[in-house]
Amino acid sequence: MSSKPGLHWRQAGVTMIELIVFILVVGIAMIALLGVLTLSTKNSADPLRRKQALMIAESLLEEVQLAKFTYCQPTAANVETAANAAACDGGLAEKWGAEGTSRPHDNINDYVTASNTPNAAFNANNVLVDTNGTAMPAGYAATVTITPQALEGVGAAGASADTEVLRIRITVSYDKEQIVLDGFRMRYAPNFP
């Protein structure tokens, strides 16, 4: 095989410019991909924190809603039948504020010191705890606000503990976020119309 003079065989491969362009394109794509991965990794814990805050709020709301809501303190002889606070035996009408310190409290009104006022009723030594006194996950804070309400013609808004309807608001704070849950509770007594 002979080659003709003047013809040059071109060698297959890439030039230096093509190699530099390839490295630049791949480098930019890698930077963008790493940026997306970093952002998703950084924010991946947020749904977990929010879900934990929601579970805490739901459990605290349920605790308060399950407490009794009577006109009289549990030690009054006619706690189940009193039709208003004035009818409680021995002057044992239920008022705002806890008679004791243990949770769960015996009446909804015991969770706050006054109506319309947020209260950290779920804390022990400035730590959020469950009803057994066990610390909940760190980084969460919770308050309860209980407000007398008028609801469908029942109850009255105001500050009186002697009302028929209460709105219970649980606020759980974490990081710079908040979860707020509202619930309602109507007074029960055997002779309530």
Task: Please describe what this structure looks like.
The chain has 193 residues and is α+β, with helices and mostly antiparallel strands. The protein has a domain at 50-67 and 111-186. It has helices at residues 16-42, 46-66, and strands at 123-124, 127-128, 140-148, 165-174, 177-186. A hairpin with a 2-residue loop joins strand 1 (123-124) and strand 2 (127-128). The chain starts with 15 loop residues before the first helix and ends in a 7-residue tail after the last strand.
Question: How would the blueprint of this fold be written?
Answer:
Elements: H1 16-42, H2 46-66, E1 123-124, E2 127-128, E3 140-148, E4 165-174, E5 177-186
Antiparallel strand pairs: 1-2, 3-4, 4-5
Distance between the termini: 115 Å
Quaternary state of the chains: single chain
Question: Counting H and I runs of at least 4 residues, what is the number of helices?
Answer: 2
Strand content: 15-25%
What would the principal axes of the Cα set say about the shape? Answer: rod-shaped
The side-by-side strand order for the widest beta sheet comes to 3-4-5
Estimate percent helicity. Answer: 10-25%
Largest sheet at a glance?
3 strands, antiparallel
* Average pLDDT level: 83
The total beta strand count reads 5
Unreliable residue stretches = none
* Estimated radius of gyration: 33 Å
| SSE pattern, N- to C-terminal | HHEEEEE
Structural class: alpha+beta
